[in-house]
Amino acid sequence: QVEVRGTVSSQFTSALLFLAPLLPDGLTIQVMEGLRSPDAVRTTLEVLAQAGIRVEADWERLLFQVPGGQRYRPGRFTVNGDYPGAMAVLAAAALVPGEVTITGLLPDAQGERSALEALVAMGAELIVESDRIKIKGGRPLRGIVFDGDRAIDAVLSLATVAAFAEGDSVFTRVGHLRFKESDRLGDFAAEMRRAGLELFPRGEELIVKGRSGSIPGGATLSAHQDHRLIMAFTAVGLRAERGLVIDGAEHVGKSYPGFFADLRRLGATIIEEAECGEEPPSV
């Protein structure tokens, strides 16, 4: 039996779950002090089940028992669409007039699916049919209060939309964003303020003071080597009169290598460093 603290990330638990069935005697995993982003572990259990792995999950006690000596069943698997990446596109689409449809988003255990509810609560017009989501952008938006732990990898995208909504928004239970690829609370809020927006981390919360209209733009923002920050800053650039420069934008390739190409196909103007000589990439 092993104990793992779940207050910083669910990824440690998922890593142990993937390893456990290959051990001769299996593994009992006790998650201590609560579990952040539990839906990510539910996704892990879905994938394990598809591969023929048995896990006994006691969610009340946060205890996972995995029999040993198991083998992963080979086969052909269809990987579901990625809700956090899709949310970055939906956030951008919500901020400008137009209509965008994203396909391949099946109803599954990904917690970021609940971010769709947040977009609707803000006033975005969404049509969800089977595995496709259509959004009609440019609608008036309003602030919300949202439990960010339900959709932690979509919080930055939602906060970007909230920054251009009427009224304030509060994202609760997001303190563990400080321990991602960057400090996704402090770094994100500081760069957004550099762009002319008002975001402030406060303990376990992120406070967003919304504004309507555009921002002057022209600022250079650091990506902090974080793909989520890059996608959020790109959406902000769509509402900047003089655009934005994102320093380190190549790190978007960690999770969404085609992000800039997809936004270009949707009509965004994006100039990359290779295309403009010594100038940094801009949106």
List keywords for this structure.
283 residues, alpha/beta, four-stranded mixed beta sheet, globular
What does this structure look like?
Helix content is 27%, strand content 22%. The protein has 283 residues and is an alpha/beta fold. A four-stranded mixed β-sheet has the order 1-2-4-3, with helices on one face. It has a four-stranded mixed β-sheet with strand order 8-9-11-10. Strands 5-7-6 form a three-stranded antiparallel β-sheet, covered by helices on one side.
Task: Give the helix/strand layout.
Elements: E1 2-6, H1 11-19, E2 27-35, H2 38-50, E3 56-58, E4 63-66, H3 83-94, E5 98-103, H4 115-122, E6 125-129, E7 132-137, E8 145-147, H5 155-162, E9 168-172, H6 186-194, E10 198-202, E11 205-209, E12 220-222, H7 227-237, E13 245-247, H8 259-265
Parallel strand pairs: 1-2, 8-9, 12-13
Antiparallel strand pairs: 2-4, 3-4, 5-7, 6-7, 9-11, 10-11
What kind of sheet is the major sheet?
Answer: 4 strands, mixed
Distance between the termini: 50 Å
Oligomerization state:
single chain
| Beta-strand proportion | 15-25%
From the spread of the alpha carbons, the general shape counts as globular
> What string gives the helices and strands in order?
EHEHEEHEHEEEHEHEEEHEH
Structural class based on helices, strands and sheet pairing = alpha/beta
- Work out the helix count: 8
